[in-house]
């Protein structure tokens, strides 16, 4: 429960049709196993106490009494642990029979939720036995010797973990045009449980998965789907025990079909609440639901869910290629549109031979091809100075040649030396002035060349550099259109590698060498001809900073929570002290460097995170970082 995490489970026991005592034993045993694994909430299939396929036996008093006795056993067993159990059984009320989900916790029957949508088509004939629970207002009833609540629109709320509010629907309720969960979520439910008996037919499994994924995304909720499986009658149907745990569109866990057992994962409920606050179109209503309170013990949740080290980069190779193609096309479309609007036929790029300027060139080439403009209108400018190495300069020259751009070489050493004389800067003093004077001189050259040629300067800086402020104000910080403005450094590398995979010969060889070159601004003199100034040695690994950026800006995580999941994601890669060191660096720089982002040039948003002051991120340049730094420094 700490940091908003809740361990949950979906379980499919092997059942015997109409053997309530046996089924109760399996449910109790599986819950005890889940409790040992730290689970707070476990969900079982529809009518699991009796089995779903009892047919007309549901009309027998013996079966109904057996189900009630079995639930009493489950209630007694639940008093020995703190797991919330949700189990399915038939329930008699005022001459009608209802298909219900029973919420059990610490020996108490918290409530009974009826199924609303009763299917009576194709292989389903539930209306022969069950009555819909629609419009049954919550009412106090006595069952298993306890007074409890029965009715629709019940919410089960944890008093000491307010992010946890559980709503329930049963099988068919999910498949209709307006599922009950829509109303439950609008009333505050963050977790929806579904007790299901969805039989298996060809192609249904993939549709079921898509339905659960998209539904959890639309409702911004956690969704636990427990499906009937082995032991159900195969007289006419097959049940596969296809269980899911989903969160906001992501499938966190999925069972193998035609098996029994338990699947586990952890919901991040504070993340869901952040998303709901962020999206002001999320529907929040405060009426017509009855809240039932319970309490859970506060404890750490051992994380088993996956946190990708590179959250901006898809892990699937096919998806990654498709995403790279889409991103480059979006970048190029943004630039092409801007060029059409300004009636511009030329573009000026400072081409260093590094990753960012290489990607900017790639994007510009694609934009020119879209517009049908001769690539000679791309003016690639290499501006060697004190830190330029032969390797990067050679790569810049080859890239321009291979892409058919017009190459300019402007050696800025004399200009910078004159500037040093003008301001009294010693060449031997390699301070920030020494570095920034070179960056600003390069921007001056690019801007004036663009004016001379009637073109625009294409910005090369990426999202990670903007987050860290790793750019010279009014130097590489400035351009006329920044094509990489929302591309983090980790993704820049993959985009460039994708381009390299599509080309051949000298161009592919050059792109690969760019990928192999250490990231550097090359503003300090080289040592023995090699790059002496390596960015990641100065500000930290970009894979860590991009991780911090995603979880702080996109999801609003606290430093403590970011540190916790970073330890989990980078286990065996970085030790705790290293992660903490660079997290503190990231926070400090992120706040201090906001002034550079407040006057950011135009550039296209292509992902879920951007720091444009006109878009997703609006932060005062003089905001104080003490709360964040204090938490990070005291980890």
Walk me through what this model shows.
- Strand 9, helix 3 and strand 10 form a beta-alpha-beta unit.
- The longest helix has 26 residues.
- The strands form four sheets. Strands 13-12-11-10-9-8-15 form a seven-stranded mixed beta sheet, covered by helices on one side.
- It is elongated, with a radius of gyration of 31 Å.
- The chain contains 19 helices and 20 strands.
- By secondary structure, it is an alpha/beta fold.
- The mean pLDDT is about 95.
- The protein has two domains: about 290 residues, Carbon-nitrogen hydrolase (Nitrilase/N-carbamoyl-D-aminoacid amidohydrolase, 4-Layer Sandwich), CATH 3.60.110; about 325 residues, Rossmann fold (3-Layer(aba) Sandwich), CATH 3.40.50.620.
Q: Specify the CATH architecture of the largest domain.
A: 3-Layer(aba) Sandwich
**Number of continuous helical runs:** 19
Strands, total number: 20
Could you tell me the radius of gyration in angstroms?
A: 31 Å
Q: What is the residue-mean pLDDT, rounded to a whole number?
A: 95
Name of the CATH first level of the largest domain: Alpha Beta
Q: Number of folding domains?
A: 2
The spatial strand order of the largest sheet comes to 13-12-11-10-9-8-15
Low-confidence stretches: none
Portion of residues within helices:
25-40%
Percentage of residues in DSSP E strands: 15-25%
* Separation, N- and C-terminal Cα atoms: 19 Å
Biggest pleated-sheet summary: 7 strands, mixed
Secondary-structure-derived class: alpha/beta
Classified in CATH, the superfamily of the largest domain is HUPs
Briefly note the CATH topology name of the largest domain: Rossmann fold
Give the overall shape.
Answer: elongated
């Amino acid at each position: 429960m700490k940091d908003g995490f809740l361990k949950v489970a979906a379980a499919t026991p092997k059942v015997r049709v109409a053997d309530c005592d046996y089924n109760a034993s399996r449910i109790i045993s599986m819950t005890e196993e889940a409790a040992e694994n730290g689970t707070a909430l476990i969900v079982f299939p529809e009518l699991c106490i009796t089995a779903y396929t009892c047919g007309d036996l549901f009309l027998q008093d013996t079966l109904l009494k057996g189900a009630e006795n079995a639930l009493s056993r489950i209630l007694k067993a639940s008093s020995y642990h703190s797991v919330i159990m949700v189990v399915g059984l038939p329930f008699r009320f005022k001459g009608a029979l209802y298909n219900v989900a029973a919420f059990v916790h610490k020996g108490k029957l918290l409530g009974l939720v009826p199924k609303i949508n009763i299917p009576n088509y194709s292989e389903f004939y539930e209306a022969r036995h069950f009555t819909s629970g629609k419009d049954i207002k919550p009412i106090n009833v006595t069952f298993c010797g306890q007074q409890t609540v029965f009715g629709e629109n019940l919410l089960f709320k944890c008093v000491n973990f307010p992010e946890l509010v559980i709503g329930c629907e049963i099988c068919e309720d999910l498949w209709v045009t307006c599922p009950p969960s829509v109303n439950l979520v609008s009333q505050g439910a963050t977790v929806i449980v579904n007790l299901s008996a969805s039989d298996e037919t060809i192609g249904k499994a993939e549709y079921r998965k898509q339905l659960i994924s998209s539904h959890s995304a639309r409702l911004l909720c956690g969704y636990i789907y427990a499906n009937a499986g082995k032991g159900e009658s195969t007289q006419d149907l097959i049940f596969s025990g296809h269980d899911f745990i989903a969160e906001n569109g992501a499938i966190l866990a999925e069972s193998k079909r035609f098996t029994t057992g338990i699947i586990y994962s952890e919901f991040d409920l504070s993340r869901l609440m952040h998303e709901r606050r962020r999206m002001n179109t999320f529907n929040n209503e405060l009426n017509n639901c009855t809240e039932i309170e319970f309490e859970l013990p506060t404890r750490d949740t051992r994380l088993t869910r996956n946190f990708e080290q590179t959250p901006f980069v898809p892990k699937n190779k096919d998806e990654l290629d498709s995403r790279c193609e889409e991103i480059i096309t979006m970048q190029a479309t943004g630039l092409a549109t801007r060029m059409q609007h300004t009636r511009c036929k030329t573009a000026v790029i400072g081409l260093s031979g590094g990753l960012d300027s290489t990607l900017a060139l790639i994007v510009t080439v694609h934009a020119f091809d879209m517009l049908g403009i001769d690539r000679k209108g791309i003016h690639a400018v290499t501006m060697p100075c004190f830190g330029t190495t032969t390797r990067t300069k050679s790569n810049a020259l080859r890239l321009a040649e291979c892409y058919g751009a017009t190459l300019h070489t402007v050696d800025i050493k004399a200009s910078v030396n004159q500037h040093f004389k003008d301001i009294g800067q010693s060449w031997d003093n390699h301070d920030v002035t020494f570095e920034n004077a070179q960056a600003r001189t390069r921007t001056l050259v690019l801007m004036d060349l663009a004016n001379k040629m009637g073109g625009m300067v294409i910005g090369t800086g990426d999202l990670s550099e903007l987050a860290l402020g790793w750019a010279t104000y009014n130097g590489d910080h400035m351009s006329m259109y920044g094509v990489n403005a929302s591309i983090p450094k980790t993704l820049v590398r993959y985009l460039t590698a994708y381009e390299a995979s599509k080309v051949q010969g000298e161009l592919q060889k050059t792109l690969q060498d760019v990928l192999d070159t250490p990231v550097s601004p090359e503003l300090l003199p080289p040592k023995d001809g090699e790059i002496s100034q390596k960015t990641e040695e100065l500000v930290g690994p970009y894979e860590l900073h991009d991780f911090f950026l995603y979880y702080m800006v996109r999801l609003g995580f606290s430093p403590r929570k970011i540190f916790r999941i970073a330890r989990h994601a980078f286990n065996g890669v970085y030790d705790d002290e290293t992660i903490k060191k660079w997290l503190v660096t990231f926070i400090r720089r992120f706040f201090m460097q906001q002034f550079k982002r407040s006057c950011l040039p135009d550039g296209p948003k292509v992902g879920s995170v951007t720091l444009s002051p006109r878009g997703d991120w609006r932060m005062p340049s003089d905001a104080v970082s003490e709360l964040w730094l204090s938490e990070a420094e005291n980890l």
